[in-house]
Amino acid sequence: MNPDLEQLQPYPFEKLRQLFSGLTPNTELSAISLGMGEPRHASPAFVRTVLSDKLDMLANYPATKGIAELRHSIAQWLQQRFELAQVDPECQVLPVSGTREALFAIAQTVVDRSHDPLVVCPNPFYQIYEGAALLSGATPQYLDCLEENSFLPDFDSVSNDVWQRCQLLYICTPGNPTGAVMDIAQLCRLIELAREHDFVIASDECYSEIYADEDAPPPGLLQACESIEAGNYDNCMVFHSLSKRSNLPGLRSGFVAGDAELMEKFLLYRTYQGCALPLQHQWASAAAWADEDHVLENRRLYRKKFDAVLDRIGEPLNLHMPSAGFYLWPQTPINDTQFAADLYRQQHLTVLPGQYLGRDGGNGNPGQNRVRMALVATNDECIEAAERIKTYLDSL
Predict the structure, then answer these.
(1) Residue 15 host element (H or E)
(2) ∠ CA(360), CA(179), CA(158), 5° rounding?
(3) Under CATH, what is the fold of the domain 3-42+294-395?
(4) Is the N end or the C end of the chain the one with fewer CB atoms within 10 Å?
(5) Per-residue pLDDT of the chain (396 residues; tens, 9 = 90+)
């Protein structure tokens, strides 16, 4: 067996199952889950129509590079959304079967394990970053995202030696679980560091289309590249998904875009990995990227839920509307695992302990005594969940 597998920690939801093992929830209340970030708004009807119309393509093998129509749809969306002069759909865009596999695969593509590599990532984080680093033969380097730094990594605290050893930097903007957004100046500074020290930036932007202010969409890494030199995406790759934007997690559809030379090697790796997106999914994805009306409605629904929930528990948990994403990241008055266990047992409500999303990189676990609440349930369920949390808080 690959010995690196022994380094992998259980996934957060496996830890949650272990926490709840043996606990009996209050059966007088219906179950509500704010634990998993699985979008539950209705999937666009037109996507289902395209899927149905293309089912005859089940008889065809898909190419890893994807159909031209999908790559063109993605390139046009990138240009419009991030004000890019040009994205070449032939060499700067690659469809992927969900960004989870792509975020994992990029580490296997770019990390050279013969040079004592580091993979730098935010902390707390999407656990794929850590697993990808370990299975590529690299050592993860965690950058804590603390409230005093607006929940963003303190890149200025990173030593020159770390940047020299860094081969891959994962960033997540808007952040999971904090909703924090990196601005253009911060992204430009990272691009300068990447080009100076020759590492790759993998920017996880899967939450970029869920944001609070319609007039202030979160910027992206390629947008920062454009502000430095139009069309120059060297050392930079962005990862986007239809899961959150379009409520299509079951479609397993996303894309990677950026540095053409990196994309060429990534395509080579993925050709052998065997994760080509089914043809009917590609056509449905092309339609989804070409439509913004359903995305506007999606944001409206999330804002409505945030307003309702914050009206009830914003003050007692010192919470405010996050810049983006669909999570709340409150500090808990007691240990986060006890908080989650009590809510499950007393209120039949699931939230995710923050420590399951973080690691102790030497200064403690930044997720300790926080929980992640995903406002993915219906509006009524989110309101009911907030009322139950308020009841629980009053009992402490």
Answers:
(1) helix 12-20
(2) 45
(3) Aspartate Aminotransferase, domain 1 (3.90.1150)
(4) N
(5) 999 999 999 999 999 999 999 999 998 999 999 998 899 999 999 999 999 999 999 999 899 999 999 999 999 999 999 999 999 999 999 999 999 999 999 999 999 999 999 999 999 999 999 999 999 999 999 999 999 999 999 999 999 999 999 999 999 999 999 999 999 999 999 999 999 999 999 999 999 999 999 999 999 999 999 999 988 999 999 999 999 999 999 999 999 999 999 999 999 999 998 789 999 999 999 999 999 999 999 999 999 999 999 999 999 999 999 999 999 999 999 999 999 999 999 999 999 999 999 999 889 999 999 999 999 999 999 999 999 999 999 998
- Please check whether residue 215 is in contact with residue 300, taking contact to mean a CB–CB distance below 8 angstroms: no
Select 46-290's CATH number: 3.40.50.12500, 2.40.50.140, 3.40.640.10, 3.40.80.10: 3.40.640.10
**CA distances for 25 relative to 335, 336, 347, angstroms:** 19, 18, 7
Q: Which of 315, 318, 345 is nearest to 329 (CA)?
A: 318
Does a cis peptide bond (omega within 30 degrees of 0) precede residue 177? yes
What is the distance between the alpha carbons of residues 350 and 21, in angstroms, rounded to a whole number?
A: 13
Say which residue the tokens 């606990």 belong to.
23
- Residue spans of the domains in the chain: they are 3-42+294-395, 46-290
Quick one: which of 188, 200, 57, 195 has its CA closest to 117?
Answer: 200
Burial of 118 (0-12, 13-18, 19+ CB in 10 A): buried
